[in-house]
Specification:
The protein contains 7 helices and 10 strands. By secondary structure, the protein is of the alpha+beta class.
Length: 216
């Protein structure tokens, strides 16, 4: 996959619409949607800002507030940038449960059940295949997710297939999770760091070093 996946969210927030707008929100019921309040959108790089987005979604509380906060920070599952685009909260809830169940079954080594659960998510994923010039010369291919839902499924598959583990960056100003895997060099499987790494980036490592020097 191309290492840069751009997505976006509406900085002005999202409005809740449903069959009983203004009444108590029931996440089990269908028909509830979030729509951006304006045409303004802020782009961000998911690989840099939230490569653990599948785990973030799995940990999201399935309440109106929890789902609204997720969409407000990371955007809708599809069609960001379209004022008429909506985020179906029932679909978001199903995806959250699907990712959570898949991870739990994988951790239990229940592969048949895990594959069955993952296939439900796999149907929601769409990718574009591109052939182009490689930075080092020659040709290379990349497949890019069409939307946030596809990126979430991709990261889930990547964690399971590569046996990734997540560590929290030790820089006091960061706290983001980053993927680690077995390896000998600074970079291991598919752009992950080796398990001995303590920081998600060189910038965080340098910031922590400066902080230690100030305490001496």
């Amino acid at each position: 996959m191309n290492r840069e996946f751009q997505w976006g969210y509406c900085p002005d927030g999202y409005e809740l619409f449903g069959p009983l707008s203004g009444y108590n929100f029931e996440p089990v019921g269908g028909g509830w949607e979030l729509s951006p309040k304006s045409d303004s959108f802020v782009e961000y790089d998911l690989d840099q800002e939230a490569s653990d987005i599948h785990r973030i979604l799995a940990e999201t509380e399935l309440t109106e507030l929890g789902l609204r906060q997720f969409v407000g920070k990371y955007g809708a599952l599809s069609n960001y940038g379209d004022k008429d685009a909506i985020c179906d909260l029932q679909e978001l809830r199903k995806m959250s449960n699907g990712v959570r169940n898949t991870l739990a079954l994988w951790e239990k080594n229940d592969d048949p059940a895990m594959f069955f659960e993952f296939e439900k998510l796999e149907r929601k994923a769409e990718f574009r295949l591109r052939l182009g010039q490689a930075p080092s010369g020659g040709l290379e291919y990349n497949f890019d997710p069409n939307d946030l839902a596809s990126y979430i499924v991709y990261q889930l598959a990547r964690e399971i297939s590569d046996g990734l583990e997540w560590k929290v960056c030790e820089a006091s100003s960061c706290g983001r999770r980053f993927a680690t895997s077995e390896g000998l060099g600074a970079i291991s499987k598919r752009y992950t760091k080796t398990k001995r790494k303590r920081f998600c980036s060189s910038a965080c490592r340098q910031a922590a070093h400066r902080e230690r020097k100030l305490k001496v």
